Amino acid sequence: MKLKYLVICIFMLPAIEMTPCQAQTNAPQPVFKPFVNQAGYNLGESKRFVCYGAPDNTPFKIVDTKINQTVFEGKILNNQGWFTELNPVTSGDEYVVEVKDRGQSVPFWIAGHLMEKVSSKLAYDFFADVRGYDDLEKYDMSKVYGGGPSRDGGAYGLEAVFEVLQYASNPALYDNWKSELGNKKMPDLIALILWHAEFAYKYVDYNGPTGYRHGSLGYEGQPRMNYDFWNTLDQLAAVCAAYHSFLKPYLSEEKYRKYRKVCLDNWEKYDRQKVVRYWTYSVKWVDPGFQEFNEMGNAFGQSVFSNLFMYLCEKNEKDGHPEKFLKYAQESAKDIIANWDFNNPRHMWWIRNAEHITPQALAWFLLVAPDKAPQGTKEKLAAWAVHMKQKTNNFWKYRMHNETEWAHAKTKELGGAPALGGSMFAVAYLLNDPELRNLGWAQVDFVFGVNPVGTHLSNKSDDRVKIGGYWEGVEEGWPQAHPDGYGRLGLVRGTLDGTPLDNQFPIAKQVEKIIGENNGQIFGKNAYATEGWCVSNRGWEATMTFCTLGSQQVRLFDADYKNEITQARPGQTITVELKAALNQDWNKADKGWVEIRNGKEPVTKLEVTETGPNTGLFTAKYQLPKGKNGGKTEVSYGYLGFEKRAAITCSNKR
Prior knowledge:
Elements: E1 5-11, E2 16-17, E3 31-32, E4 40-42, E5 48-50, E6 59-64, E7 69-75, E8 80-82, E9 94-99, E10 103-104, E11 108-111, H1 114-129, H2 159-169, H3 171-174, H4 188-202, E12 215-217, H5 232-247, H6 253-266, E13 280-282, E14 289-290, H7 302-314, H8 322-339, H9 357-368, H10 377-391, H11 417-431, H12 434-447, H13 462-466, E15 480-481, E16 511-516, H14 534-546, E17 553-558, E18 567-568, E19 573-579, E20 591-598, E21 604-610, E22 617-623, E23 632-637, E24 644-650
Helix pairs in contact: 1-14, 2-4, 2-5, 2-14, 4-5, 5-6, 5-7, 7-8, 7-9, 9-10, 9-11, 10-11, 11-12, 11-14
């Protein structure tokens, strides 16, 4: 017999010590241990913990548990301790925070690109596991909650868009994982992109029944739509752009032509040329009626992404019309610049899982076509950065709703912190703003345990651990889960399950540990996890994508790997250096690749090898073309705005 609720216990957080007399009227306050990012911290990035209630100037120390020695000391201020300066040479050692009279944290690592190591694969594994059906030939939309492609989702999930960006940000990393989706010659992430592309093409005009929807679609006063098939074009546009940058070896020209044609034929008919407002009618209690934007329809900024993808695609076509799509993208960006209101919750936290699209789309314009972006683009992002710094001016570094409310009182906000980090990384890179980048890492820390509940936002079930679906190094997971809900996420890798509600700020003193059905009406002291869903994890995928912007680099050196150079003689041997999040094994030198361009010759790939176990630097020797006096060789890594480049000119002059 399946229980509606399995209440395991009243869960006293493992990081909390309470006295037996706590229940008495004059009981002493609980003592909270330090909350850390349970997996750990990236080298060269900000590092912090929270120890709630610890008085200012309380001493703390960081202890290397392998050698049992203190490696850093500091003092707490405003419930926080910072140890950004701690960047140990070796990786693999575990550390703990010890705070006087407060105890010890769980252990954590400090390593180069640690977060990418433990999160990159899980970020897309989720989307592989959550598909309504593996086989598109047998796909039955009427049986999938929300209609798919992801369970508990719809075409508004934009899976292909963010999978394309994820691969483009660090392609050699994703080439490591193959065969899981049935094609040993193709990276799994590429196979997943193509699966979502084919889904979008198959259902590009589908208006039939779905398993269930929280509303209907279409403009007020016009016929209602059963399924948001308009958004299928946004996903196909991303694939069309990626065809010209990295999908050609895997996507046939015939299919590409079909995808492009269906986009061109339906673009204006589906209103893809503009920002779409008041298109979704929601019956959800949290946002009933027509909304300007919400997580279940078209988001503010979505049209910037889609039109830029078509612009990049059309630039490669002899009969293309890139100027048309560039104009659409510019008009959509101007709409954001003029009308994006940071003080309007319907443009910000209220649309929850779709909020991240707005700043990321505007930032991406400056990444792929900086000279074509409308005037005021960077200034609008700078104003957003100021707003975010103001709203996160608290010891959790959590973006507060307003002066009286930390978070929503009743509903999950998984589109908040998990996605906000990605927006901050993108904007910080463009503004060269290290403070904003630090705030981005604080959002990542929030996901991994630096939050009022003191746990990762994903439930650590035995089932997920057994299938390799949980984050390495995380001890305590979210205390509640809804494994058999509409998304059936119990066996979905990398699922985010819940996030603190308003009444759990500034600290959650007690929550119930519940595994089972949650009907969304259990508030009070519970941590509340209805279940994660595709647009929640999409935001986390975006964070793992944009975090690479500030940490990857290509440089060129002489043959002895001593001096960085920009000029060399034809035929000379040089050293190519790539710094990227490719170091997946701490005990051996990993491999990667870069692309080489010599004038109009075909692009070639050059394999690079890590200079040592876990150095994060990858090198290779390369002989420049002979007889190319005045020629230029370019080395690059990444695609679609994420490129890191270095160039060298061949000259006989010494």
